[in-house]
Amino acid sequence: METSVSRFLPAALVAAFCASAAYAWDVPYVPTPERVVKKMLDLAKVGPKDVVYDLGSGDGRIVIAAAKQYGARGVGIDIDPERVREARQNAEAAGVTDRVEFREGNLFDIDLSDATVVTLYLLQRINEQLRPKLLRELKPGSRVVSHGFDMGDWKPAVQLEIDGDWVYYWIIPERKRVGHPRETIPRRDEIRLRR
Ligand SMILES: C[S@@+](CC[C@H](N)C(=O)[O-])C[C@H]1O[C@@H](n2cnc3c(N)ncnc32)[C@H](O)[C@@H]1O
Prior knowledge:
Helix 2 (34-43) crosses helix 3. This protein has a single domain (28-190), classed as 3-Layer(aba) Sandwich (Rossmann fold), CATH 3.40.50.150. It is 33% helix and 19% strand. The protein is an alpha/beta fold. It has six helices and seven strands. The longest helix has 14 residues, at 81-94. Bound molecules: S-adenosylmethionine (SAM). Residues 13, 25-27, 29-32, 54, 56-58, 61-62, 77-80, 83, 106-107, 121, 147 line the site of S-adenosylmethionine.
């Protein structure tokens, strides 16, 4: 199966990026189609115990769907105050304000340690910049689902196409032990001191 995303760049996102000459943020606003939202949440097996973070949450549709249709809690962050206002209104209309929260801010600054699922519709370059943060802050077993863009040489556990839209899925691995196992063996002088 094709793994390079370059042949499958979502046209809408790339067109929006090129059109926005005065664009100041990392990624322009293009919403994920509802059928792709459903596939992303199904793929991550989102359920009532999950806390879903959408980084660059737009009109809030992923977080709102996670709360309304899957019973999860959710947090969306977006740098555009207009999008945050819109997402809050949509959450109100969907009756999920008790389970979702939308914050205005930079996705690189949000603490992810509470999340069990992270969703992305950004750009390949941003995904790759985010990767160390995801691996550092998310608990092992947490899931990451990206619409449209992969993470370079961090190969997804699953990738699938839905009518021309690609979705990628990763599971955060156990943390590697730092240092060589022999470093955990006490040195001779430490053994003497312990006696
Ligand atoms: C392609 S849209 C995706 C919206 C939504 N996640 C979805 O899938 O429907 C990307 C969103 O990221 C937001 N964004 C761009 N750069 C950002 C940043 N540095 N921090 C937070 N949000 C950002 C944009 O305002 C936009 O709403």
